[in-house]
Amino acid sequence: MNETLILILGHSPDESVKWAFLDNGEVRLADKAENVAALALIADRARTARQIAAVVTGESAAMRAMPAPPRAAGQFRAAAGFLLEDELAEPMAGIHHTVSRNENGAGQVFAIKRSVLDSWRNAFSEMGFSPDVFAPDFSLLPAALERAVILDSPERVLGCIGLQGFALEYPMAENVVVSLLSDSSIKEIIIYGDRTIAVANSEEVSVDWRGPVTDDVLFRLYGTALHGKSIPNLLQGEYRKKRDWTAAAGRWRRAGMLAAASLATIAFFSLADGMRSLRLADRLEDRTLDLHATAFPDAVDADPRSHARAILASGGGAPVFLPISTHIAESLEEIEGVQIDRVRYNAARGEYSINLRVADVQRLEEFKRALQGRGVAAIEAGGFRRSGGFFLGEMRVSLS
């Protein structure tokens, strides 16, 4: 599915969570969960979402703007560490920080305590799904030089003055916000909220009052930011979430991954011959369409078979994964007692890495001979080990 799931978190995993599924910027379904554990009710739909974003309260994070950061990523990150160490006056060993650039190249540095981030990751680890993006709420406001954006709710204020974001609770926010808005560099102010905020030099500044801060307003603002080119995300470095292989695949590599998925489906059928039915075929067809839509977002409405033929006919050399896939499938059908647990395709080498589960060594040798008889080289990678009633190991397969 092409939905984005946005989770507006509380101060801890035990507090309530506002959530919404958005599609093309529109809220399709929204509600509130009692706590993170209660999100289990939407876990099935969450796992089909294109993106899951967790929005943490800005009071638990810090941000610093760097209008002209170093161009090299390593130098940018190192400079950000020095900046935070000077300003936060805390040992950096307990702080996790990330960097990003906005569309104009200006730098933004975000920091959060590792203990806070770890508590959220542990809470989500039991849910069966986890966020792709973890960002402070103020970082998802539309930042721009000479512009201020203020979200004034009854208990707290979110804001972005130029490139610098912040979150403050009342009563501290009352005087601080007025002071920040008096910055002479601000030429435009956008305010959401019912409270009247004093604006200095109001005759020289454009002030746009856009009504109260509602959940719908928050989800729309956050959804717009999450579809931008530069998304602030605390899940970097050691906290980076492993990317979905279909999203990370390139043009030919994506097609190869689809072929690998097809081969995995064949392996599944070899384990469950008695479960073939029309309903299962329909489910696999739906899964194929979802996989195709994820790998090729620009051709969501195209038939996967026709689209694959068009890609293969567009040039760039003959993809070798097609004959390899065919030969592996034929060999699996010929030799009993051989199962595939995992399939990976390396486009650069033109080879499959397959994790096998075989009943005995003799079946393994028969499977290798069946492949070799079809012109496919099969090489064991690291040998096979016995586990229970099977032998487990990895084999690399390529055209000989």
Automatic annotation (TrEMBL):
GO cellular component: Gram-negative-bacterium-type cell wall; plasma membrane; type II protein secretion system complex
Membrane topology: Single-pass membrane protein
All residue ranges annotated as the GspL periplasmic domain in the record: 249-373
Record-level GO BP terms: protein secretion by the type II secretion system
Chief location category: membrane
Keywords on record: Cell inner membrane, Cell membrane, Membrane, Protein transport, Transmembrane, Transmembrane helix, Transport
Subcellular location: Cell inner membrane
Signal peptide: none
Stretches assigned to the GspL cytoplasmic actin-ATPase-like domain: 5-242
Family from the record: Belongs to the GSP L family.
The protein, known as: Type II secretion system protein GspL
Organism from which the protein derives: Hyphococcus flavus
Lineage of the species this protein comes from: Bacteria, Pseudomonadati, Pseudomonadota, Alphaproteobacteria, Parvularculales
